[in-house]
Design goal:
By secondary structure, the protein is α+β, with helices and mostly antiparallel strands. The protein has two domains: 83 residues, hypothetical protein PF0899 fold (2-Layer Sandwich); 34 residues, no CATH class. The protein contains two helices and six strands. The strands form two sheets. The chain has a three-stranded mixed beta sheet, covered by helices on one side. A hairpin with a 5-residue loop joins strand 3 and strand 4. It is elongated, with a radius of gyration of 18 Å. Bound molecules: zinc ion (ZN). Zinc ion (ZN) binds next to loops.
Length: 118
């Protein structure tokens, strides 16, 4: 997964939705990908520099895909790429992966005090 491209896409979406208002907070839902939240948060802050999104609080909601194992019956969230090919519990390969890998900008918080300001 390419965290930089992801971060830039999130910032671009937030800037578009803010429509010129100053953004104080972002809530982003990231499904599927085994990502490093710190890297994504940092990437967003870097990409946001100089935009209305700069200095906003970033709230990442991670929704990992789950792996369902037919061998031990276990169901585990996927935390790394290895779990995509073998059950994290028993190492079995008779597994089914479910979930989606959508990245969604769930909401933005805008600074309403700037609305109507001179
Ligand atoms: Zn298993």
């Amino acid at each position: 997964m390419h965290e930089t491209g992801l971060s830039e896409a999130i910032v671009a979406a937030a800037v578009r939705r803010a429509a010129g208002r100053r953004v104080t907070g972002l809530r982003v839902r990231i499904g599927g990908h085994a990502i490093d939240p710190d890297v994504v948060t940092q990437g967003i802050q870097v990409a946001a520099a100089g935009t209305v999104v700069a200095d906003s609080a970033v709230d990442l909601v991670l929704e990992p895909m789950t792996v369902q194992c037919h061998e031990c019956g276990g169901s585990e969230p996927i935390r790394d790429h290895l779990a995509m090919v073998a059950c994290p519990r028993c190492g079995g390969v008779d597994i089914e992966v479910s979930g989606n890998d959508d990245v969604v900008l769930e909401s933005i918080t805008v600074d309403s005090r700037t609305l109507g300001a001179v």
